[in-house]
Write a structure and sequence with these properties.
Elements: H1 11-16, H2 22-42, E1 57-64, E2 75-82, E3 85-93, E4 99-104, E5 111-118, E6 121-127, E7 132-138, E8 141-148, H3 151-178, H4 184-208, H5 213-221, H6 234-248, H7 266-276, H8 282-295, H9 300-316, H10 323-334, H11 344-357, E9 370-372, E10 378-380, E11 388-394, H12 399-416, E12 421-427, H13 432-441, E13 448-451, H14 459-462, E14 470-474, E15 480-483, H15 487-503
Parallel strand pairs: 1-7, 11-12, 12-13
Antiparallel strand pairs: 1-4, 2-3, 2-5, 5-6, 7-8, 9-10, 11-14, 14-15
Length: about 500
């Protein structure tokens, strides 16, 4: 995670690998179907070369190996990357010479686009400021397309060809080393030479196109080096390096530049950074999410995409406690109207979910529960003396409660009973006979059994009881350390809290 730098020969794959995956193939098939349908509907023909447009874009395409005949119509499609997906934007039918043209009166948004012929024949091009482009390509070797008319697009193509060649050289070098045709010293020497060559090419291209998207695109693929920090003591060095890595990971990318959303590598870079390089703790993730979102606020689209990405990560996560992540993001950006793009109905639904969890997030002090036992005597959660307490909400008619309760009692509770563990079992309904029948049937008399027949505790406001069973595990300070867990996980936590921690 704290590597000084990545192997530069991976950069081509970083920029191109999404186009080689089946996911993109499937997206391309969708594009093909969509554009083919549009072609039939509107009868789009582009048989003659178009003159350059000063306001919009004109991409003349000359394709060797494809052409339209009286019996067979070949088409080409223009698509673009957007936040990890691909979308169609234009189509052209090739004439009998293999010529077609993409053209409209409005410029394309800058980014990486795809010239697509079918599910196995496509290649990427960079669309920059100059959008009057001529492309000549042989479908037998799409990577060697010739691009003229737009220096930025031309140099992107040269860069891809260069990296492809260097990747091939590196593959041959590795093979020679494995086959013992060269020794370790020569292998590493050659590898260093090739690395310097790639880095030199990158620097030259970045300098040449410092004000263009191409320069920004290549710079964005170069990882930020993490200082060794040898001046620091061993006890804090790794943490300091991690903090630097975390806060400077995107130094080579302007997160408010929407052009990066239209690349094949940036969206997955954000996803991998957030899911694999950041401690998967809600507080740490929230801190990082706020940092990324704020850096994206310079543009409305990047702000929307980053904020949506971060909150969706919390909402979709199956990890315990991640509700705290989306809750914090929702409070800062959605509930106060900052996220102006958000649908009102969706925000209202989010508010309802937030209301359920606002007082019972992991790490919070558990709210008091003042309920009554079967003899109508008051019982308070705060009166519990055991080191670990499980607050267990249930109702007898709940199918999951019928399955979970016996396992909780017979397999977990009996194992830890008298060892610092107790169950504060809360019947959520008001039918005393139903409650007592369930308690006796499952032999729960040794639990602290309570209910709220007069609806005076407001337990449903302090704890999420919208679905049962509801489990909240509290430590000796009565802070919530786990919730919504299965019995196997509960047993593991009790082992950690009541046995292993004491040994330490």
């Amino acid at each position: 995670m704290l590597q000084k730098s990545y192997n530069p020969f991976v950069l081509y794959n970083l920029a191109q690998n999404l186009t080689k995956q089946e996911k993109i193939h499937n997206n391309m098939k969708k594009i093909f179907i969509t554009l083919a349908t549009l072609f039939v509907m509107f009868g789009a023909w582009a048989n003659n070369a178009k003159k350059p447009s000063s306001k919009g874009y004109t991409i003349n395409l000359n394709v060797k190996g494809m052409k339209s005949t009286e019996t067979k119509k070949d088409s080409a499609y223009l698509a673009y990357y957007m936040n990890g997906k691909t979308y169609s934007t234009d189509t052209t039918q090739l004439d009998k010479s293999g010529h077609g043209v993409f053209t409209k009166g409005k410029k394309l948004d800058e980014g990486i686009y795809i010239i697509y012929f079918n599910s196995s024949k496509y290649f990427d091009i960079l669309i920059g400021k100059n959008q009057n482009i001529t492309i000549s390509v042989d479908t037998a070797n799409l990577q060697n397309a010739t691009i003229t008319g737009a220096p930025e697009s031309e140099d992107f193509q040269k860069y891809i060809v260069f990296l492809t060649g260097m990747n091939r050289k590196r593959t041959d070098l590795v093979k020679d080393y494995k086959d013992k045709k060269i020794d370790s010293t020569k292998f590493h020497s050659k590898l260093d030479e090739m690395t310097k060559e790639v880095e030199g090419y990158q620097k030259q291209t970045i300098d040449t196109h410092a004000k263009d998207f191409l320069g920004a695109y290549i710079k964005g693929t170069i990882p930020v080096e993490t200082p060794e920090m040898k001046e620091l003591p061993d006890s804090i060095r790794n943490r300091a390096r991690y903090q630097y890595f975390k806060h400077h990971f995107f130094d080579n990318i302007d997160l408010s530049d929407p052009r990066f959303l239209r690349t094949p590598y940036f969206p997955s870079m954000v996803d991998n950074f957030y899911s694999k390089h950041i401690l998967q703790d809600p507080d740490t993730l929230a801190e990082t999410a706020f940092e990324l979102i704020e850096k994206s606020r310079g543009d409305s689209l990047t702000f929307q995409v980053m904020t949506s990405k971060m909150i969706n990560y919390g909402i979709s996560s199956k990890m315990m406690g991640m509700d705290a992540l989306w809750y914090k993001i929702a409070e800062r950006y959605y509930f106060n109207g900052v996220a102006t793009w958000a649908d009102t109905a969706w925000v209202n639904s989010l508010r309802k979910e937030a209301k359920k969890i606002r007082y019972n997030l992991i790490g919070m002090q558990a709210r008091e529960l003042a309920m009554r036992d079967s003899m109508d005597r008051p019982v308070k959660l705060s009166e519990m003396k055991d080191e670990i307490v499980l607050v267990y909400f249930f109702e007898p008619s709940c199918g999951h409660c019928k399955k979970t309760t016996p396992v909780l009692h017979d397999s977990v509770y009996t194992k830890w009973k008298g060892k610092g563990f107790e169950v504060f079992a809360c019947y959520t309904q008001t039918d005393r006979n139903e409650w007592m029948e369930f308690v006796h049937k499952n032999h729960l008399e040794d639990w602290v059994n309570v209910w709220d027949p007069y609806r005076e505790s407001w337990f449903w406001d302090s704890y999420d009881t919208s679905a049962t069973p509801g489990l909240y595990l509290l430590n000796k300070d009565r802070k919530i350390i786990a919730k919504k867990i299965d019995m196997k996980t509960l047993d593991m936590i009790l082992e950690e809290e009541l046995v292993k921690r004491k040994k330490k």
